[in-house]
Amino acid sequence: MIILDEADEMTNDAQTALRRIMEETSKSCRFILIGNYISNIIEPIQSRCAIFNFTRINEKELVKQLESICIKENIKFEEQGLEEISNITNGDLRSAINLLQSCSSLGEINTKNIQKASGHSFKSKIEEILELSLDNDFNSARIKMSELTNIYGLSEKDFLKYMNEAINKNKYKEIKELIEILAKYDYRIITGSNPDIQLTALLAEISNLRKTE
């Protein structure tokens, strides 16, 4: 059995080669392909697979998993701290474990250390990124966006969700244009476009909004 994580990041040529390997070894080997965007997997491979879609883990189950890890690794924790991790990572177990590991280096798993490890609230950070973009400070906004997605593991789905909340909360005069931009890049990501490129393009387009005034 061979497990390929992030299979949706493979090029079409690589996937075509993989398809041939899957065909040639079908009697002796089984493949498990893991990815975020099924649209990035070529149809000949999809047709040879049983497809399973998984939802995010609910808060109760995620906290239970984190508690189990803490007990096994002898990490001191507060229940409220684990719930805070669950709230920040929104059901993404991999991001939750990464944040737990970062927080454990600071000592006990509590709200204070979690805020340090996570760079404080994702929501407030995204609100800051939105403000930087609207002020035409694209480079600073891009750097902070990359930090959230690549270092703290915030998914592009949650990035867009929190940005939508920030837009509606602050009632910007450009709210119509902002929602249209957000919807456009959300659709592109859902249909399989590279998330990093699309989020960067999103910030670039927002940065241009007030240039025309």
TrEMBL record:
Task: Please tell me one Gene Ontology term that the record gives under cellular component.
Answer: DNA replication factor C complex
Q: Which Gene3D superfamilies match?
A: 1.10.8.60, 1.20.272.10, P-loop containing nucleotide triphosphate hydrolases
Q: Which SUPFAM superfamilies match?
A: P-loop containing nucleoside triphosphate hydrolases, post-AAA+ oligomerization domain-like
**Keyword Cell wall biogenesis/degradation among UniProt keywords:** no
Biological process terms from the Gene Ontology for this record are: DNA repair; DNA-templated DNA replication
Single GO MF descriptor = ATP binding
Q: Which family does it belong to?
A: Belongs to the activator 1 small subunits family. RfcS subfamily.
Q: What is this protein called?
A: Replication factor C small subunit
Instruction: Give the species this sequence originates from.
Output: uncultured marine thaumarchaeote AD1000_100_C06
The beginning of the lineage is: Archaea, Nitrososphaerota, environmental samples
Query: Encoded by which gene?
Result: rfcS
